[in-house]
Amino acid sequence: MAVSASHLVKKFGDFAAVDDVSFNAGDGTIFGFLGANGAGKTTTIRMMCGLLMPTSGLLTVAGVDILKDPEKVRTRIGYMSQFFSLYPDLTVVENLSFFGGIYGLRGTTLERRIDEVLLELEMDDMRNRIASSLPLGYKQRLGLGSAALHKPEIVFLDEPTSGVDPLCRVRFWGFIKKLAKRDGITVIVSTHFLNEAEYCDHILLMNAGRIVAEGSPSSLKKGLDFRIFEIEAEFRLAELPVVRSFPGVVDAYAWGRVLRVTAEPSLDADALLANLKSTGLKADSAKEVKPTLEDVFIRHYER
Amino acid sequence: MISKLLTIMKKEALELLRDRLSLLTFIFLPSMLLFLYGYAISLDVKHIKVAICDLDRSSQSRELTRKLFASEYFDSVGEVSDEQELDEMIRKGRATAGILIYPDFSRGYLSGRTAPLLFILDGSNAQSAQSALTYLYGISSDFQVAALSEISLKAGIKIPAAELRDRVWFNPRMESSRNLVTGLMAFVLMIVAAIATTLAIVREKENGSIEQMVVTPVSPLQIMLGKITPYFILAVIASILMIILARLIFDVPFVGSAFVFAAGLLLFLLSALGLGLLISTIAASQQFAFTAASFITILPTQILSGFIFPIESMPRVIQYFTYIIPARYFIEICRSVMLKGSGFLSLWHDFAALAGFAVFFIGLSVMRIRVKGLI
Fold it and tell me: Do B375 and A103 touch (CB under 8 A)?
């Protein structure tokens, strides 16, 4: 088990940023923390890295008891903070050799490893570029490279994709997958982008310092005890509260010209359509669709 | 251990070398300040502008004015014909001092009565007025002594007179620039070293890269030491440049031992860097760090270190405060070693005080880092 946490609590004064959280992250998996800002993702990651001491609970990272010996884990993990934290005046290679150097890599070992990482990240032609002149997407890759240079057992990525455009995000996730699958590195990542959660093997959904749901993306979607309907209809936004008040309807929102309705399992398409028509809405059919992670997310947030 | 420390030093040095502006500022700003201050705040009063109104027009009055302008203290800005004009010259700022020689000056002088003379001074600059008055008294008394000895010689009588001889050591011409330049070195180094270290550390706190370093297997002490060392080396280079400049431009001698001086410089820089380090353990933003470091170093060092204002002439209570200003001790070492050639023995309490500051500031910072971590 790469990380194992049980009844983990972190309090800042009276405020519990992480409130009784337990989970296990298996070796070589991509393990995602999902939640809005302030859900406790970053605090949890910082505790796993030894940057913050838990208030109570048990936490083992790479077999090391963090509460007893937080420093022992440092050679075995890599960490990329929200800010990519590079040295803007240094070149790509200088940044990498600095991080390699403080992890104890030296000489030809260091050089070989830098070459390897630059090839993996498709950045070989950028080795002598000054970091501050790199586009954001490359800075992000360089951050990942610095965190993984010393071949750690676990890499922690704290919101690595914030501020980066969607195309770069997709490519970045490609590199993360490569890292996890080929080198067998466990990746623990936090994000608030729901579509990114699909890349994870296992997701923890966090809200207000607690885990509200967990599982693989598909099992989470399957486990949703609601039906989702999409109705093509002519409606005005002012009518949404009316739809929400129908019996059996949990939520309704507009998606372009499509009305998306979350409903109790007991409600079927015909009953919904009949209800809609009775209020004078022009609707032809109600189609049941597969839930997305967004539906799962919203569902768990509302509980 | 060592290789990780070297890695951090190398990175810090590289960053410094890339940041040309900061690098040049750090190396040359001290010398530039020395140059500007050295010229600007000369406390010597020379070339005072004097207007003369000689109503006597005798050989005695001419002899007096000749003596006056023979010294480098006074420059003639013209002769006027009456007292009103003299007043006008001073009021308009064309002259700092006016000398009115009354018509009966030579008559009084030769007949053995008093020879009247009026000094008019622009007191708006108290410092130069005070000096001008002192010089003028000196010259008029010289004149008197010369006349007396002439008379006594002619008459063959002996007049009792005390003769004052002076012997000024270490700075025979009593130029304030020697004192200022040595004090200035301490002042400038204190500010630059403390502010630069603080900023270097707080910058990494601000952009989050220090957090990145904390999760690596290096200790906070390695990080601090690695970051400070390049700045220490730069400070030493800046100091050497200042000494050369002091020598070449301000003619400040270096009679003492370079070794004693280096030891003092080392301890002083350690306490300045230590102070910077301590501020960085408290400050979270570069702005706060800069303000705090400036506030703590600039004013107290300028006023209380003896750099400009002599400590002996401060009120007793204020004198106690000067003991907590590290620059005070380094200025003492600078002046003593460079001008007098003093050794360790006579300066041991200054060395002890600086060592105490270095240990205190660095020790306290280390304690704070141990307890609180770097972030």
Answer: no
Interchain contact B285–A (C-beta under 8 A): no
- pLDDT the model gives residue A233: 77
For residue A233, give how far its alpha carbon lies from the nearest alpha carbon of chain B (Å).
50
Q: Do A98 and B208 make contact, defined as CB atoms within 8 angstroms?
A: no
Mean pLDDT, residues B282-309? 87
Average pLDDT, chain B: 84
Q: Is there a contact between A89 and B7 if contact means CB atoms under 8 Å apart?
A: no
Paired strand residues for A50: none
From the number of C-beta atoms within 10 Å of its C-beta (0-12, 13-18, 19+), residue B297 rates as: buried
Is A45 a residue whose pLDDT tops 90?
Answer: yes
Which pLDDT does position B264 carry in this prediction? 94
Separation between Cα atoms, residue A260 and residue A254, nearest integer Å? 6
Q: Which residue of A has its CA nearest to B218?
A: A102
Residues of A in contact with B3 (CB under 8 A): 101, 104, 106
- Chain B residues within 8 A of A102 when measuring between CB atoms: 4, 7-8, 213, 216-218
Give the three-state DSSP class for A10. strand
**Using CA atoms, how far apart are residues B134 and B262, in angstroms rounded to an integer?**
40
Query: In three state form, how does the secondary structure of B250-277 look?
Result: HCCCCCCCHHHHHHHHHHHHHHHHHHHH
Helices (H), A184-239: 194-197, 217-222
Both tokens of residue B156?
């063959």
Pairing of strands A30-34, A210-215: unpaired
Chain A residues touching residue B217 (CB < 8 angstroms): 71, 74-75, 102-104
Share above pLDDT 90 across residues of chain B, in percent, rounded to a whole number: 15
- CB contact under 8 Å between B217 and A81, yes or no, is no
**A81-113 pLDDT per residue, tens:** 877 678 989 999 999 999 999 998 988 999 999
- With beta carbons under 8 A apart, name residues in chain A contacting B15: 87, 89-90
Residue B262: exposure state from Cβ atoms within 10 A (0-12, 13-18, ≥19): middle
* Structure token pair of residue B229: 């060392």
Question: pLDDT, tens digit, for every residue of B118-172?
Answer: 888 888 877 778 888 888 888 888 877 777 777 778 777 777 777 777 777 777 6
Rounded to an integer, what distance in angstroms lies between the CA atom of residue B56 and that of residue B117?
10
pLDDT band at A24 (very low <50, low <70, confident <90, very high): very high
CB-based contacts of B367: which residues, under 8 Å, 6+ apart?
A: none
Which chain A residue is nearest to residue B205, measuring alpha carbons? A85
- Sorting pLDDT into bands at 50, 70 and 90, what band is B41? low
Question: Strands, E, within A13-128: which ranges?
Answer: 15-25, 30-34, 56-61, 64-65, 77-80
**What token pair was written down for A80?**
């990329």
Q: pLDDT for B209-228, tens place per residue? A: 888 888 888 888 888 888 88
CB-CB neighbours of B261 under 10 Å? 18
Given this model, what pLDDT does residue A298 score? 79
Nearest chain B residue to A94 by CA: give it: B11
CA distance B198 to chain A (A): 17
pLDDT tier, B80 (very low <50, low <70, confident <90, very high otherwise): confident
- Asked if the model's pLDDT at residue B107 lies above 70, the reply is yes
Look at residues A45, A61, A48 and name the one whose alpha carbon lies nearest to residue A2: A61
